[in-house]
Amino acid sequence: MIRKASLVVVGALMGATAMSVIYSAGVPAQAAGPSTYKELSIFGDVFERVRAQYVTPPDEEKLVENAINGMLTSLDPHSSFLNSKDAEDMRTQTRGEFGGLGIEVTMENELVKVIAPIDDTPASRAGILAGDLITEIDGTAVRGLKLEEAVEKMRGAINTPIKLTVLREGADKPLEITVVRDIIAVKAVKSRTEDDVGYLRVISFTEKTFDDLEAAIQKIKAEVPADKLKGYVLDLRLNPGGLLDQAINVSDAFLERGEVVSTRGRNADETRRFNAGPGDLTDGKPVVVLINGGSASASEIVAGALQDLKRATVVGTRSFGKGSVQTIIPLGESGALRLTTALYYTPSGTSIQGTGIKPDIAVEQPLPEELQGKVRAEGESSLRGHIPGQNETEEGSGSVAYVPPEAKDDLQLNYALDLLRGKKTDPAFPPSPDKAASAQQ
């Protein structure tokens, strides 16, 4: 039985940095001292001066929002104010589903290009094809919009229509296609078999991740007989994180027992420990975990747990190093407060804040010539104003976050496959059943 944890977000929104979040109603704060209220009166005076005398009438709501964000971002890179729209976007992302069309898109020559329609979605049923170029969305020209803005226009309430103007190769004039929005479930886990090895790629940790993972493992078991299956590759590269309960459940899927992660706040009584329960879904088969500089937060929790408990060998390059937890405090219709309240620790009691997960076997993935000099290593330790980790050194955290589109060019994946097939050797892999069991006590 997989132990279910409380709802917590550990990961990233669609942004540049990873984050860890707990949803909370908040707790009463102690009253501030007289000097603090004096400073607040100064803020009020400044606000009134700006509101009344600035050269053009300012947006008062934006002034207050930016002032709040200025206060929060002075603390660390992950504390911030979420207005009502941002807060709703965050809830939508962690649910793993939204009202939309069901297409994977990119930007090409200032137009939205359809990479592929997702099977059995409104887009595929309406006849949208891979390669289509969207020029207008409900009569609004796409040129001049950012990709995020165009995507936002295509999302909306279910059962509402949207008209797309499409350029299609071979068509003599633009096509107008009406699509009725529906609930689109985003797959959190992609899987396949690499002959005698099961490949599991966890894209993000949403409410659907564990269920997707469980289904993927069962599918692999059905395709490869147990006596032929060498093991599993768990690919966490480019995974920015997500829900903490899902990170715990994903770890638990490969474990029989042991502490998965603990969180420690300002006060000793705020420490929380999360443990795995019986039931290894992979039946004890060897596991290799892949990480790189794009593996952050919830993905680092999984990698750290399986590494510390000797359940898997971690291959790749140093992870992002995001080891802090943010509490989401709802503020009614105004939005929500995202505030750093704790650090998390791997089963060995190690904080990875500013250091990341160091792989058991370092395997660098070369950048293609066209990306050399354009992609650099990023990590928590390079973020301005980050909380210094207790184990942080000048080496810092993070590494280049790049995964080749073709498996044949993926050195890290191919190393993992060779390791599972016995073509590569490492003293720590695979762990003997006795060693793994004792490590999980």
Give structural notes:
- It is a single chain.
- With 441 residues, this protein is α+β, with helices and mostly antiparallel strands.
- The chain folds into 3 domains: 88 residues, no CATH class; 89 residues, PDZ domain (Pdz3 Domain, Roll); 235 residues, Alpha-Beta Complex (2-enoyl-CoA Hydratase, Chain A, domain 1), CATH 3.90.226.10.
- It has 10 helices and 22 strands.
- The strands form 4 sheets. Strands 1, 2, 3, 15, 16, 17, 20 and 21 form an 8-stranded mixed β-sheet that branches. Strands 5, 6, 7, 8, 9 and 10 form a 6-stranded antiparallel β-sheet that branches. A 6-stranded mixed β-sheet has the order 12-13-14-18-19-22, with helices on both faces.
- Strand 1 and strand 2 form a beta hairpin.
- Helix 7 runs parallel beside helix 8.
- The radius of gyration is 24 Å and the shape is globular.
- The N terminus and C terminus are likely disordered.
Can you give keywords for this protein?
six-stranded antiparallel beta sheet, 441 residues, 10 helices, 25% strand, alpha+beta, disordered C terminus, Pdz3 Domain, eight-stranded mixed beta sheet, 2-enoyl-CoA Hydratase, Chain A, domain 1
Overall number of structural domains: 3
| Rg computed from alpha carbons, rounded to a whole number of angstroms | 24 Å
Top CATH class of the largest domain: Alpha Beta
The largest pleated sheet is described as: 8 strands, mixed
- What multimeric state do the chains show? single chain
- Count of helical regions: 10
Mean pLDDT over all positions? 87
Going by helix content, strand content and strand pairing, the class is alpha+beta
- Tertiary shape: globular
Residues in β-strands, percent: 25-35%
How far apart are the termini? Answer: 17 Å
| Unreliable sequence segments | 1-20, 432-441
How many strands? 22
Share of residues in helices: 25-40%
Architecture (CATH level 2) name of the largest domain: Alpha-Beta Complex
